[in-house]
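Check the record.
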Amino acid sequence: MNRRTRASATLASAALAATLAAAALLTACDSTATASGDTTTLKQAARTAVKSYVEALNTRDADHLIEVGGVPDDSRARNEARRILADKGGRDLSVTKIQVDLDMGPDVGSAELTAQEKSGKSVHDTFSMVRTNGAWHLTIFTDRPTAPDKPTSSRSSTH
């Protein structure tokens, strides 16, 4: 092989390597765009769940509140929904800001709600959120039983 042929082969190899590197870079950029697009979609769905919560409060709708909370429709949920609605319901809230963060992956996040009551008073609330079977739920219900086989985080002491 003469020098000229060797130089052409080297150039061809370099061009092929550059082309492969550019293709790899474009693929990486494309997957990043897709991932951020998915994140945007997830955050929008989570915002919609927060808006549903506000709607349930405004209409004092216990069924809707239980649905947003993602808890079984039982007597505990009904009682707690009544307490939540008595405390926060019927204020004619209008959402001014919802900030969603996906803190621990695509299925767990937090949301910060800023709204204004009809009276003009500003309201702030923060929620943990969980996505189950594609639907976002706010952890607004606290009176939930612990599964019998799961230990609780509280410790009992005997003195």
Notes: The chain has a mean pLDDT of 79. The first strand starts at residue 94 and ends at 101. The helical segments are 3-59, 62-69, 75-88.
